[in-house]
Amino acid sequence: xxxxxxxxxxxxxxxxxxxxxxxxxxxxxxxxxxxxxxxxxxxxxxxxxxxxxxxxxxxxxxxxxxxxxxxxxxxxxxxxxxxxxxxxxxxxxxxxxxxxxxxxxxxxxxxxxxxxxxxxxxxxxxxxxxxxxxxxxxxxxxxxxxxxxxxxxxxxxxxxxxxxxxxxxxxxxxxxxxxxxxxxxxxxxxxxxxxxxxxxxxxxxxxxxxxxxxxxxxxxxxxxxxxxx
Length: 229
Description:
Oligomer: single chain
Largest sheet: none
Number of strands: 0
Radius of gyration: 17 Å
Structural class: mainly alpha
Number of helices: 9
């Protein structure tokens, strides 16, 4: 199942950022994946900067989590580019990426929804398996990565919302964007990671639970990408 693969992480966050820059350079600016890619590149660069400033409690663990987190997005991009099926959480973004009625903010939020709602929990479990520790050992840095995401989400909404002169278009967009919460997605990802960690020795249950997360997050993504024009 796509939900239980463990993408091979790149060497470090600099390599993750390089891949994102290459993806962005190859796509039209209006492409929905390109919109999210710019957002995620900014997140990756900010995490790299804070890592160098001693922001994280355990820099090695935080770096591995961020790299494994990024690897899941890059694996979805690679799957779509080679005609394979990416995880269900990512399919709405790849399917709607060129729809003229979907706004840039919707593309950005749909990507964040897929990545935080699904990939973050699995990346945390992957990191714990690699470091031989439980999720509770990484809770502080999990929250600090989440704080970086929250700070950038506010900027994303400000940058991608239409201005007052487009208020008629903004009304449904404001309603749609306000129906999704990064804080709730982070909390759900944390809870899911703890359940997945407890199921890690039971392959069938682990796979089934991970698949249900994937499908549920994908359903939310389809709502976020409802065409508005």
